[in-house]
Design goal:
This protein is of the alpha+beta class and about 675 residues long. It is about 25% helix and about 25% strand. Strands 10, 11, 12, 13, 14, 15, 16, 17, 18 and 19 form a ten-stranded mixed sheet that branches. A hairpin with a 6-residue loop joins β4 and β5. α7 crosses α8. The N terminus is likely disordered.
Length: about 675
């Protein structure tokens, strides 16, 4: 078995019961509800021997032919909780004993159920339902198939499946039975009520109502209920978790015998090694495989650079107990662990996790795991904390750094293995040189990259990739308060060539623009981005010569892209800055949820009032490369006017709302960001 699966599929399990086992140490209490009493059987004429044998063969054929579906039905109705191993065995025991319980005399199924399926299958299904309802999950009451040396677990499903399983565990047995018949079997309401009544449920209508309420809250999981591995006791994983216990017990017995022998001959017993820790398990009792590890040179041999090729680093990568606690914290919520999910990040356990880091960077144990496009940072302190962040489709820049710790001194980062050089620079002083940052084994010292609350400083990371990845490739990352920093990019003004994607913001023109847009734009820029931000781009979509010979101004759109695909945008006017004092931009519009100024919407229009040195006011207007003409209503009325340079300046009152409309060369019309 490999480290990822550590499991053997079994389909189906058909083990002979070998008597009751010992009761578990802790049995989950079922939600209170009226017990399902088996309904009295109606007297039936005893069939002749040949007919009885024929009827039993029909029941056996129905059980064998529908074994997997019947086992899934029993598994859903049986109590949930942490003892998943015995729940699997109990589901098989219920199905296998249904043949013994099915009455060979009388009708094979109640006629009220209708001709929906074979009558023998109806009878066997009813007996499975009765068996799952009548017997609690206690090994001393329910003889189970025996399985030595292995623990069984259903394969992990989706986060929606796990949420449904937890909801069913809190429900009454009657509600679970109604849910299984209504959703898994797909039966209409009247048939569900009839079958629940035959199974001995005292209030079938109430059970169905509870089942419908569960289905309403978990429709995504319900659609795939018949295919989900979470609820399939016939496709399970097997893991030898008890081998460690038996080995530890053997060592204890050997140590005790050695101690007795040593006492008899007057020798001191030697102390052996401590027993190996048991495998970690999630809240549902499923064993968690140890996190996988990438080879140290994987990033040199792949064409895809993301967190999946980070090697495991840190001085605690061999601490299996710590790694187990981190994996268990990610696998499910716990009252002992404070859980934080960054915006747009799906919550739920990973299918398989990869270890990126385990160490004590600031005296506190930190573990970073990666799986299914998400990062999980587990920190052990007075109260353990787990932070989840989305990282799907990360690349050489967005997977280049992550924040390990945050203290009063700043954030300590772990850098990607392909980062050769690291510096810090202040966006507000673009002409100042960058300062080198030491990063032994990828770990930086604490860096104060969040600014001081004013616009005086805007420090960022400047990283340079190894020549193995890209020659002379440097890029900027801004701390936005989350697990991952945001990638800063720049799109220069149009020059007549086709539109190009954003480029790295490390050149003089880009640094001069970010010196202006990094502060003073509410809702835009690094200071207001917040966790969950993937990238920030400043796009200079137009330049305009100001009236009265006051120089050239630049129109920009600052775009914030989140990891979940959403984003915001704000337009601004950068007035001339001959003294290089980086004055604040003049914000002209914005939208909190939009795809404007992204590669999917590269048409933008903006306008603002401006006063020249003569005291005269003008309405400055500009648009992106496909703009043909503009018109305005409101405080300034302007008929459709051509804009050859994609910018206009019209004298006006200097105040008041103006509704501007732009015509594109495609014939479409656009407005300003609101």
């Amino acid at each position: 078995m490999n480290g990822r699966e550590a499991a053997t599929p079994v389909a189906p399990i058909a083990l002979e019961p070998s008597g009751p086992e010992q009761p578990p140490r802790k049995v989950r209490q079922e939600p209170r509800g009226p017990a399902a009493a088996a309904p009295p059987r109606t007297a039936a004429r005893r069939l002749p021997g040949a007919a009885r044998r024929a009827r039993l063969k029909e029941h056996e054929a129905a059980l064998v032919g529908g074994y997997r579906e019947l086992a899934r039905l029993a598994y859903l109705v049986l109590p949930g909780g942490t003892d998943r191993h015995h729940r699997i065995l109990a589901a098989h025991a219920v199905v296998q004993q249904a043949l013994r319980a099915a009455p060979p005399d009388g009708p094979a199924a109640d006629p009220s159920t209708g001709p929906y399926e074979g009558r023998a299958h109806e009878t066997v299904r009813l007996q499975v339902l009765r068996g799952a309802l009548a017997r609690p999950l206690r090994r001393r009451l329910l003889p189970l198939p025996r399985l030595w040396g292995l623990r069984l677990f259903t394969a992990a499903g989706s986060p929606e499946d796990l949420a449904l399983d937890q909801e069913l565990a809190r429900a009454t047995p009657h509600a679970r039975a109604g849910y299984a018949l209504r959703v898994l079997e797909g039966l209409p309401s009247d048939r569900v009520v009839a079958l629940l009544d035959l199974a001995g449920v005292p209030d079938p209508g109430r059970a169905l109502a509870e089942a419908e309420a569960i289905h309403a809250g978990h429709r995504a999981a319900g659609r795939d209920l018949d295919r989900s591995p979470e609820f399939d006791p016939c496709a399970v994983r097997a893991q030898p978790t008890d081998l460690l216990r038996r080995r530890a017990k053997g060592r204890l017995l050997a140590a005790a015998a050695a101690a007795v022998l040593a006492a008899a001959v007057g020798l001191s017993p030697a102390q052996g090694p401590a027993p190996a820790p048991q495998a970690a398990a999630d809240q549902a009792g499923r064993a968690l495989p140890p996190p996988r590890r990438a080879a140290a040179d994987d990033w040199r041999r792949t064409a895809r650079l993301d967190f999946g090729v980070w090697p495991a680093r840190g001085d605690l990568t061999a601490d299996r107990a710590l790694l187990g606690r981190a994996a268990a914290a990610w696998a499910g919520p716990s009252p002992q662990v404070r859980r934080t999910t960054e915006p747009g990040t799906p919550d739920g356990p990973p299918g398989a996790a990869q270890l990126l880091y385990a160490g004590r960077p600031d005296g506190t144990a930190v573990v970073v795991l990666y799986g299914e496009g998400r990062l999980a940072r587990y920190t052990e302190g007075p109260q353990p904390e787990l932070t989840l962040a989305r990282a799907d489709d990360a690349d050489v820049t967005t997977a280049a750094a992550l924040a390990l710790t945050r203290t009063a001194e700043g954030a300590r980062y772990l850098l990607a293995p392909w980062v050769d050089a690291a510096d810090t620079r202040d966006l507000r002083t673009p002409d100042a040189a960058a300062r080198p940052v030491p990063h032994p084994d990828g770990l930086t010292p604490p860096l104060a990259l969040t600014g001081d609350g004013s616009c005086a400083r805007r420090p960022v990371l400047q990283l340079r990739s190894s020549p193995v990845v890209a020659e002379q490739h440097a890029f900027l990352l801004a701390d936005v308060g989350g697990l991952l920093p945001a990638h800063l990019t720049w799109t220069p003004p149009p020059d007549g060539s086709p539109a190009r994607p954003p480029r790295e913001a490390t050149g003089p023109e880009a640094l001069a623009a970010w010196a202006r847009t990094s502060c003073g734009l509410p809702g835009a820029g690094p200071a207001d981005a917040g966790p969950g931000t993937r990238a920030l781009n400043t796009w200079a979509f137009a330049t305009q010569q100001l009236p009265e010979g006051e120089g050239a101004a630049t129109w920009v759109c600052v775009r914030r892209d989140r990891w979940d695909g959403g984003g915001s945008a704000a337009t601004a006017l950068l007035l001339p800055d001959p003294r290089r004092t980086s004055p604040a931009p003049l914000r002209t519009g914005g939208a909190p949820e939009t795809r404007a100024c992204s590669r999917f919407d590269q048409n933008v229009l903006a306008a603002t009032w401006w006063r020249g040195k003569s005291g005269r006011s003008y309405l400055l207007m500009a648009g992106s490369r496909r703009l043909v003409s503009m018109s305005a209503t409101g405080a300034l009325t302007m008929p459709e006017t051509k804009a050859p340079a994609r910018a206009l300046a019209v004298p006006g009152a200097g105040q008041g709302e103006v509704r501007l409309t732009g015509l594109l060369d495609t014939g479409a019309r656009i407005g300003t960001l609101q």
